[in-house]
Amino acid sequence: MATSVEFIEYVCGQIGNDFAVRYKKMFGEYMVYANDKPILLVCDNTVYVKLLDAVRDDLAAAPTGIPYKGAKEHYILDIDNAALAKSVAQKLEKVTPLPKPKKKK
């Protein structure tokens, strides 16, 4: 089951207005960006967060899962908890680098 547009828009609304939030469809699922930094992966209407030190304390009790075959394990974010979602998004935005520009062929 692919992620619905309604769900991805809900996710973007939950993480707040502290930065520019956008999403991009990738392989039938979505990546959520904050200030052009990729911070959340959304697959099958589930929000995944990389296992990073910056959010370990916030998500220590969170379940983990694998978003797609071949991926590493990720935390599963309770997106309905707006305060937690905003806190995690803010921390991820601070530690996530901007993607490197792709070289033109």
Could you give a short account of the major beta sheet?
6 strands, antiparallel
**Element order: H for helix, E for strand:** HEEEEEEH
How many strands in all? Answer: 6
- Residue windows where pLDDT falls under 50 for at least 5 positions: none
- Secondary structure class reads alpha+beta
**How large a portion of the residues is in β-strands, by DSSP E?**
25-35%
Radius of gyration over C-alpha positions, nearest whole angstrom:
13 Å
Q: Total number of helical segments?
A: 2
Net shape: globular
Mean pLDDT: 92
Trace the largest sheet across and list its strands.
1-2-3-4-6-5
| Residues in helices, as a percent range | 10-25%
The end-to-end span amounts to: 35 Å
Overview of this protein structure:
The chain is an alpha+beta fold and 105 residues long. Helices cover 23% and strands 29% of the residues. Strand 2 and strand 3 form a beta hairpin.
Spell out the blueprint of helices and strands.
Blueprint: H1 5-14, E1 21-26, E2 29-34, E3 37-43, E4 46-50, E5 64-65, E6 74-77, H2 82-95
Antiparallel strand pairs: 1-2, 2-3, 3-4, 4-6, 5-6
List keywords for this structure.
105 residues, 2 helices, alpha+beta, single chain, globular, 29% strand, six-stranded antiparallel sheet
